Amino acid sequence: MKNKDLNELKNKSIENLKKIIADQEKEEKQTRLKLKIGKIKNVHLANQKRKDIAKIKTIIAEKNFMEVIKNQK
């Protein structure tokens, strides 16, 4: 995932990000299955999907943290 994509994700709402995570998790499962079957030769795709999911989850955590801080003031 490129920095440009990350910046676009930071502007999206938490609900949209959760939908994106669900889609990414489905793609990761399919990629891992295809990898085990032998249809995909690039073994790094599954790990890259996992890292992308982690990045999106980090963005959600940051947004939740910022909301908590705003509510405290």
Automatic annotation (TrEMBL):
HAMAP family the UniProt entry points to: Ribosomal_uL29
Coiled coil: 7-34
Keyword line: Coiled coil, Ribonucleoprotein, Ribosomal protein
Record flagged with keyword Membrane: no
Entry's Gene Ontology BP terms: translation
InterPro entries: Ribosomal_uL29, Ribosomal_uL29_sf
Alphabetized Gene3D superfamilies for the sequence: 1.10.287.310
GO molecular function, one term: structural constituent of ribosome
Native source organism of the sequence: Candidatus Curtissbacteria bacterium RIFCSPLOWO2_01_FULL_42_50
Record Pfam families: Ribosomal_L29
Keyword Transmembrane belongs to the record: no
Family: Belongs to the universal ribosomal protein uL29 family.
Cellular component terms per the entry's GO annotation: ribonucleoprotein complex; ribosome
Name the record gives this protein: Large ribosomal subunit protein uL29
Lineage top rank: taxon: Bacteria
